[in-house]
Structure formats: C-alpha cells, structure tokens
C-alpha cells in the first residue's frame, strides 16, 4: 500500500496510516511464519499444520469429491485436530476433501481454531440444535455418552447440504493411516450404511433382558442376521437415509427407551435396532476400535490381529488424556505423532 505525500493528507492521518500499514505487514508476516493465534481462552492452542496438496494424478477436484463429517466439541477438539491431520496426511488427493463439523457451541471460536490450524482446509461448521434431542436421551452407563452432540449423527442427513449424497462419518477419537478414498469407494450395494461388522460379538448384550423377554421386541430382528457395528466409522448414503426417514426410525426406538429400559449404551443401540443385519460390511481394517478400553476403567488394550487403516480409541480412555497424565498405553504412542496441541511449555520454548 502506497501512502500519499504529506501535502495532500494531514500529518495525523499519515501517522495513523503508517501505524496501520506496519500492523498489517507484521500481522501477515506473523501468520506466514506460523505464529499461532489463540482463538479463544476456552480452547487449546494448536500448531499450524502443513499444507497438503493434490498430486497430478488427482485431476479435477469435482471428479471425486469426498465428504467427511465429524462433531466438534471443546472437550474433544484435540482429538478432532489429530484426526483431520491424519486424514490429510495419508490422502492422495487432500484438496478433494470437504469437512462438515457439527457443533453445539460457538461457531466463531471453533471456526477460528480450525482455520488457524488448517488454513487451507475446505470445511464448514454447522450448529447442532440440542433441542432436537431434548427429552429423548436416556441415562446410559457413562456420562459422556449422554451428551446431545453424541446423537448428532442421527440428524446428519438433515444438517449437511442437500446436494451431498454420501458422507463418511467419523468420531473424534480416531486416526486414519490409509487413504480415506479407499473407504469412500466402497460399493454400498444399495444399503444405507456401510461399516465394519463384528458378528463374533455377543449381540444380545447390547440390549436388556426386558427387551429380549418382550414378545414384540424380540421380533425386531426377525429375518435379519444382526451383527454389532460401531457407529463411530460409517459411510452413509444420505439420500437413502433421507428418503427412508431413518432419523424418525431411530427416534422411535429412543422414545421406547424412555418408557421401558431396553438398552444401556447411548446412541449406539437405536442404530443397531434399525440397521443391524442390513448394512454393507466393510473390512475390519477400517475400524480398529476399542483402543480406549471399556466404558468404566478405560484399561489398556492391544491391537486386534490384521492390517490397519484406522485406529479408534472408543471406550473411556482417550490418548491425549492418558499421555498428559504420563500414564499412556503403548497404543497411545501411535496417536501422538498427529497431536497438534501446543502446550504452554512448548509456547515458551518457541
């Protein structure tokens, strides 16, 4: 910006413009060299992630646009940042990714946090109205499972843009160590949801004796071969979800639960009641779940045998909390390289 001569502008105004120019110059320089701006006193501070660009083989962004949805919460934002970094880092065409974040809190603070950490990320934040689940949530075995945002995935199809036909939903306590395009490309075979299935799990344990002893409820899975699947990693055909009114179907089971306790685990069981035995099974490599231990003590667990594309710290134990407490599990060190959190000690050192 060029300043006019003192003959045409008052000295006081020239002085103010000079200060403004100096401020703009030093501010833009600070952003370029990666100085972290703390977006809110209520949120952690994160380092700026590197820029990830498409290779020549990616072609046009419109040829293959991948849509990813996640929730965004102050208590889990450190996990979300690590998850996003892992997805970008292992993606062949990272610029073809669009992220949709669902939040129940201030969009401005969270937008600033994401934008300052991932300046080149294509994303939007959508407000999740907690009133949608007011009076519908039943107390579960762990308080974290009772938070309204935990139920946002049920309403995902009604929140994201209507022109989005397919989306990958991911929990915040994951890291992806493979190209997410491989998960996106799954042939859903006319199913509404695709996810890894675990048919060796004891399916009956997800529902109470009152459920199984009720002659009407026990017919729910008639004609299906129901298997457990984890709703923290799902490919969703949101067009079919909308047309089939699956949100209402899940809500109906939540209403039943309010009158008669038929399950203990938050938002998972109503998904199972509606969809178990009728999803497209995906390779187990796409959800190495349970790494956070059980829902009570969060004890350390080992990896399941087989190849891995996605690590999932479902359960009570979260890797960032265990690392901060200096009592990490061995598996938590696989999450640490994706942690962008800037501690107060690191800030002072820099």
TrEMBL record:
Belongs to the glycosyltransferase 8 family. It is an enzyme of class 2 (transferase). Residues 1-30 form the signal peptide. One of its GO terms (molecular function) is glycosyltransferase activity. The keyword Ubl conjugation does not apply. This is Hexosyltransferase. It comes from Castanea mollissima (Chinese chestnut). It comes from the Eukaryota. The keyword Flavoprotein does not apply. Pfam families: Glyco_transf_8. It is a single-pass type II membrane protein. Pathway: Glycan metabolism; pectin biosynthesis.
